[in-house]
Write a structure and sequence with these properties.
Elements (H helix, E strand, L loop, with lengths): L1 H16 L1 H10 L1 E4 L7 H21 L9 H10 L4 H28 L8 H23 L4 H15 L5 H9 L6 H33 L16 E4 H26 L22 H12 L3 E2 L2 E2 H17 L1 H4 L1 H4 L5 H23 L2
Antiparallel strand pairs: 1-2, 3-4
Helix pairs in contact: 3-5, 3-10, 4-5, 5-6, 5-10, 6-9, 7-8, 11-12, 11-15
The structure holds protoporphyrin IX containing FE.
């Protein structure tokens, strides 16, 4: 009886939407198998953590209030009165950090395997914009509990934005909703965090996944163009998907352990009239830039040290974003050493300066 109904439903849908073609598409999708295959999983992990963010974020929205008077108290309420509210908040905060970490790992693995080379330039570009947006999610979300640390870190962060030549000042006022960080900033960050960023992120993510789906997974440079079966392949459905799901389950467990045993702190409510406490620093993923600006001398030659640092980071970011267009060797199917060295330098630099940022007072 049940089988009959589902068969009828299947036929009904098939007549109208030819769903068989979609299933055929899934059957034709393959994933290359080689010694760097493990890196193929990190895009999926990032995707999984983004889904967690959407679900826990919507749950938080049921109680959160984005105003100067009520933001902190509403989070207190979520953590103490709402059933499992503490778990949802802690999961949202941990998952945000893991998502950014997974996105970085995904980006560097794509970089080192040169998966950005033609024809995947747009996959890389859309990915870079997704990463910038993910950092924007982190920056805007950090302020939402309206606690002391976040309040002062937002002043410092937006101050740095204000130093950018030409566009800095208008950008600072746009972000703050005025000269200073106030309740107006909180309202704005709330809007960015729950409406503007999710909207743009979702469109870009759909594009990113569409590109991946249309072009299939890249093969390692070493094997490309070789005749015969140089690269082994595994069906995406169900072989790769099941592996994906297994990993997602492991990540979910990790997330649960972190959220339960290391619950996210709330701290003290922000007092805009108090002086800044010592040791204000941004979240770890901004720390390497923050620390660099801190250790640069006030003057380098006749130029302002901090300004020079900001311009250098901007230029490096642009060059990194357009790497598929200037890395000629990978276009010719070669793995150039220069690109590898730049990548290694970037990874080491980020790790070293982040550690220095944590040790520094
Ligand atoms: C931030 C959210 C992101 C999500 C949710 C995401 C998701 C995915 C997924 C599911 C895949 C297919 C599996 C894989 O290759 O791992 C993929 C592939 C890819 N992603 Fe991302 N990604 C994100 C960010 C990025 C970033 C920051 C970059 C680099 C700038 C990037 C560049 C690529 C490229 C080039 C591929 C194709 C890889 C290949 O064909 O071997 N993505 N992405």
């Amino acid at each position: 009886m049940n089988g009959n109904i589902s068969q009828k439903l299947y036929r009904w849908l098939q007549d109208r939407y030819r769903i068989e073609e979609i299933l055929e598409l899934a059957e034709k999708k393959y994933v290359p198998v080689h010694r760097h295959s493990v890196w193929y999983y990190f895009g999926g992990i990032t995707l999984f953590l983004f889904i967690i963010q959407v679900i826990t974020g919507i749950l938080l929205l049921l109680y959160y209030k984005g105003s100067e008077d009520l933001a902190f108290e509403s989070i207190q309420f979520i953590m103490s009165k709402v059933q499992f509210g503490w778990l949802v908040r802690s999961t949202h905060s941990w998952s945000a950090n893991l998502m950014i970490l997974a996105a970085f790992v995904h980006m560097f693995s794509v970089y080192f395997t040169r998966a950005y080379r033609p024809p995947r330039e747009l996959t890389w570009l859309s990915g870079m914009f997704l990463l910038f947006l993910a950092l924007g999610f982190g920056f805007s979300g950090y302020l939402l509990p309206w606690n002391t640390l976040a309040f002062f870190a937002t002043i410092v962060g937006t101050d740095i934005v204000g130093q950018v030549p030409v566009v800095g000042r208008p950008l600072l006022e746009f972000l703050r909703g005025g000269e200073n960080v106030t309740g107006a900033t909180l309202s704005r960050f709330f809007g960015f965090h729950v409406a503007i960023l999710p909207g743009i992120f979702t469109v870009l993510l759909v594009l990113h996944l569409f590109f991946v789906q249309r072009q299939g997974m890249s093969e390692p440079l070493e094997a490309e163009g070789k005749q015969g079966s140089a690269v082994k392949r595994m069906p995406f459905f169900p072989n790769f998907l099941l592996r994906d799901l297994l990993l997602w389950l492991i990540v979910l467990n990790l997330l649960a352990i972190l959220a339960v045993f290391f619950p996210w702190e709330l701290g003290q409510k922000a007092d805009p009239f108090a002086s800044a406490p010592a040791g204000i620093r941004p979240e770890w993923y901004f720390l390497f830039m923050f620390q660099t600006l801190k250790v640069l001398p006030a003057k380098i030659g006749f130029l302002d040290g901090e300004l020079l640092g900001i311009v250098a980071f901007g230029l490096a970011g642009v060059l990194w974003t357009i790497v598929p267009f200037w890395d000629r060797e990978s276009k010719k199917g070669q793995k150039g050493r220069f690109i590898t060295y730049i990548g290694l330098f970037a990874v080491l630099y980020i790790i070293l300066l982040t550690i220095m940022g944590y040790i520094a007072e």
